[in-house]
Amino acid sequence: MIGAIKTDFLVIGSGVAGLTAAYKLSRLGEVTIITKKFDFESNTNYAQGGIASVFSKTDDPDKHFKDTIEAGAGLCDIHSTRILVEEGPKCVQELLDLGVPFTKDQDGNLDLGLEGGHREKRIVHAYDRTGREIESTLLSYVKSISNIKILEHHNCVDLITPHHIKNIKNRENICFGAYVLDSKKGEVRPFLAKATIVATGGAGQVYLHTTNPDIATGDGIASCYRAGAIIKNMEFYQFHPTSLYHEKGNSFLISEAVRGKGGILRRLNGEPFMKEYHSMADLAPRDIVARAIDNELKKTGNTHVLLDVTHLIKPEIIKHFPSIYEKCKSLGIDITEEPIPVVPTAHYMCGGVETDVYGRTNIKNLYCVGEVASTGVHGGNRLASNSLLEGLVFAHRIAENISENIEFTQFTKEHEDVPLWDKEGLKNTEEWVLISHDLYEIKTIMSDYVGIVRSNLRLERAKRRISLIEEEVRDYYNRTIITNQLLELRNLTQVAQLIINSALLRKESRGLHFSTDYPENRNPSREDTKLRNEDVVFN
To answer: Residue 397 catalytic?
Structure first.
């Protein structure tokens, strides 16, 4: 039987949050990063716009704070948001020091962009390839550190907590590491760690159309929920207003920065419409723009609206948005000559595992960071380009907290008592064909009933249907050999339930959760929706 692997720190996920936590923790001990596909495959790699941070002389953290709070529809946590905007510039400077090639102007200063919800230019970017450049730089740096090991094609099956250990006396919920599937070998083994950092990103694949890569299946949040972590505000799933509408476009993201440079949203007849919905027009917060487009589509019956940049200078468009220009050009769309067809698409999970300002969850030695975490900085709607910033800031704070408490972060007797994985099971290929159809059904249910506009009737219908699928998947999982596909299906089913149940708890329309049954409310509020797995049993 395959034995356990020991590491000081286990990092699950290889995006900006996971890699930043890893290199900062490497000063304290051995770090093992597991990532379920290739090391570069992460939501970070697909981020186009940039990182919101204060570098302009006309800007200051108070302005960034105010824009974040306003975009968050009254639900942002004041303390964590202050930390985000005040500690952000130092963390971005660290990326510059590591060699991330952020775009600069002719004077050598950062070329700061403008995006929706921001009233100042503060978007630090590498043209429209910011995420890719950050990911590449961080990966190169992490790989140069001898006590960091990256294991590709390794997926978390479950976090290891006391309910996995027989006759344990400690009734406190503690994370001892994770059971991990090596999908190349088909083997599951325990990875034991002094501290476990979950940085798995979001769950956009729970919807039919998403800007997220295939890996975004909610693995981290589902694993944390099963382990007993508190989950909050999952009803706030952000739909990016402008995703390319094309049969071969695969929901390609058209960055917020396009509107920041002067792009205008228009109806198919050429009329601009955003001034009818918000005083900031095309630069309104994302929830408002996405809902406006959704309303336009419902009124007209059209499949998309237009994002027009043809009035801008052609060389400037190509210079600032090379990836978007090249992608659209490959599909027969010259964005300098014709508008871009766009629709809102699932983009970012604003809720997640509840953490404090040091990334700590309610489970001892379990930290969460990045999109999987709910620090409170996004509230009911994330301000554009605050996501990469959150990953940087709170990854730094996790390493800081562990460093200050290193004497308490040690291997224990319970680590030695963690059982090996029991891989007994019968792989039934014929039955898997039937079960795999559940994935498409989950995506369809979520898109039809739990999208941009919801109602209690739609949510209750979605809840009943997802519950039936969950029963099928759970039954199949309990008697089948583990595969990566099965893990993803299991996790997406769990995430769908969390989103639906959270949405049913919120008796108002706020931010990204808009219900036809309740009036909209954007007044300051600290009423979070919280869910906890009542099935967790501690020995």
So the answer is: no
